[in-house]
Fold:
Amino acid sequence: MAARERADELICLSRDLAPEGPGHRFTVEQHGARWPAFVVRYRGGVYAYINRCAHQDLELDWVAGDFFDNARRYLICATHGALYEPDTGACVAGPCKGGRLLPLSTVEVAGEIRLRRSNGVRLARNEATQQ
Ligand code: FES
Structure:
């Protein structure tokens, strides 16, 4: 248990993410820089990304947590409509077609969705909870 606590951090509970439903926003930090991020559930899997469009340095969601398009098939950038595959982060349509979202490593275990620390990426200090 102690080893797991050092290797990953709680983002949210599994029940907080409905399939193809609203995402959960959070903040990560890496080497002193902070980045908005989000996690969604799609076709049974959990996928997390830095919340920054590949087209411009803007967050995808105008309405906080609203990442899916109307068909619930793609993640959509609200600014210019870029569409991203939820499970790969690849942009398949829009001004940044061929680009991709920056993925974050997660694990879902025991009803929790947790961020795996890698390359110095961790939850921002004010979001890290006692685990
Ligand atoms: S900023 Fe996302 S498509 Fe232009």
Observations:
- The two ends are 10 Å apart (CA to CA).
- The chain has one domain: 3-123.
- The domain at 3-123 is CATH 2.102.10.10 (Rieske Iron-sulfur Protein).
- The longest helix spans residues 2-7.
